[in-house]
Write a structure and sequence with these properties.
- There is one protein chain.
- The protein contains 18 helices and no strands.
- The longest helix has about 35 residues.
- It is about 75% helix and about 0% strand.
- It has a single domain, classed as Hydantoin permease (Orthogonal Bundle).
- It is mainly α.
């Protein structure tokens, strides 16, 4: 069965797919409001360091497992560690993306609804209270969420080359053009320089344990680590692919897009005199208000471009999340791709219904004092993703032989061994230590 697996057609296709998995709502929706809540430039500096000291080694660990086995997460762990408890890591990284698919698709649905509102000029009028009314209703967000998860499933049904590869090849360059256009426009707004200063002038007194943990957690979330998506995509990599080059390319693409998202949002926020720490509603509540204050034709164009960008970014990530479960059913259970996609989509859809309704009819249903949506987000972002990342680094750094890791990392000896020694050290020591810091901080705070 493994010989019949599809592969990406080139390094560019692989990097675009991996970057698409990384570049999503974590960059446009989550990153700007976390920057606002955690001190601006100080948070960004910790985030940048986390990406290279913590994220890149974990990215490499997942890539090494995926490319070496050319199997889905569960099958990969069974092949490399047969008869050991490591198979549960494979199962964990099937369950985690399934949970993420549920609540992530709800936010993806919001982007569809707001794109429709932008196209129908709804966002050129007074938007006060629009977002709370929308998410607390029953049918409108459910309909948008359903459209989003169905669109994700359609792309997956087309397969690796005709679905994932073609979609990301179109979306990623388009995303870049759209976000740059928004940045350029935002910088022309009166008072936008304050937003730029907030992003580039750090106040190091803002850095504490909470900021460090938030930056590390965001790095995990935005790079799709600890959930098996990178492992799965790496299993589709061409045989001669330099996975270090893919890792560095993906990391820079994710970092670049996150920073562009910050420069797309914060200048507009400061221009409107709004507090940057507005929280998760920053993109869907605060920015539409800003659009409504612009001349109607400008507000219409900017809002359409902005929410189209969010939708495309959301889809490039959601397809990678869905693909993990589909690959598991196809390879481990022998179920056809169409049926596997339908099964995983339906499970994600049911979970998403509860997450969507947790803002309205089920808002009174609390788990550990949190709504269903917030509980799912916290469980995955604060615990399951770091746990998956920790186990991947421990597996590659301590369970696999150094010879096998070097062989895969260096593409059978064709890349720089010195770079390998640095990354291997980070993978064995610093990355696990950094993840433990995230765990301890999440327990204490």
């Amino acid at each position: 069965m493994n010989n019949k697996r599809e592969n990406f057609g080139s390094r560019l296709a692989l990097i675009l797919a991996m970057a698409g998995s990384a570049i999503g709502l974590g960059n446009i929706w989550r990153f700007p409001y976390l920057v606002g809540q955690n001190g601006g430039a100080a948070f960004i500096i910790v985030y940048l360091v986390s990406c290279f000291v913590l994220v890149l080694p974990i990215f490499m660990a997942e890539s090494i497992i995926g490319r070496r086995t050319r199997l889905s997460t569960f099958g990969a762990m069974k092949k490399l560690a047969p008869g050991t408890p490591w198979k549960w890591l494979g199962l964990l990284t099937v369950i985690t993306p399934l949970l993420i698919l549920g609540y992530y698709s709800v936010v993806g649905g919001w982007s569809i609804d707001y794109l429709w509102k932008a196209c129908t000029l709804r966002l050129t009028h007074d938007t006060a209270g629009l977002f709370p009314i929308f998410i607390s209703s029953t049918w409108e967000p459910l309909f948008a969420f359903t459209l989003f998860i169905v669109a994700t499933a359609v792309i997956i049904l087309l397969g690796v080359k005709n679905g994932i590869e073609k979609f990301t090849k179109f979306c990623m360059p388009t995303l870049f053009v759209l976000i740059v256009a928004i940045v350029i426009f935002g910088l022309t707004l009166p008072g936008s320089s304050e937003g730029v200063r907030y992003l580039v002038k750090p106040d190091f007194s803002k850095i504490d344990a909470g900021v460090v943990a938030a930056a590390m957690g965001q790095a995990f979330f935005s790079m799709s680590l600890g959930m098996g998506t990178i492992l799965t995509y790496a299993s589709y990599a061409p045989e001669n692919e330099n996975i270090m080059a893919s890792g560095i390319g993906t990391t820079f693409a994710d970092l670049g897009f996150a920073l562009l998202a910050g420069f797309a949002v914060m200048p507009a926020v400061f221009s409107a005199g709004i507090q940057p720490g507005e929280g998760p509603g920053l993109v869907f509540d605060t920015l539409p208000y800003i659009f409504s204050q612009m001349p109607s034709w400008i507000g219409a164009i900017v809002s359409i471009v902005f929410f189209l960008t969010i939708l495309m970014a959301a889809l490039t990530s959601s397809i990678s999340v869905l693909e993990v479960g589909v690959a598991y059913l196809v390879e481990e259970k022998g179920i056809g791709r169409v049926k596997s996609t339908i099964i995983i989509t339906l499970i994600g859809w049911v979970l998403g219904i509860f997450c969507s309704l947790s803002f309205g009819p089920l808002s009174g249903a609390k788990l550990f004092g949190l709504t269903i949506f917030d509980c799912m987000d916290k469980l995955c972002s604060d615990w399951l993703l770091p746990l998956g990342g920790l186990l991947f680094t421990l597996f590659v750094g301590w369970y696999m032989s150094k010879t096998d890791v070097r062989d895969e990392f260096t593409n059978h000896g064709t890349t720089n061994v010195g770079i390998f020694n640095v990354v291997y050290f980070l993978m064995r020591y610093l990355a696990p230590l950094g993840i433990l810091v995230v765990f301890i901080t999440n327990l204490v705070l």
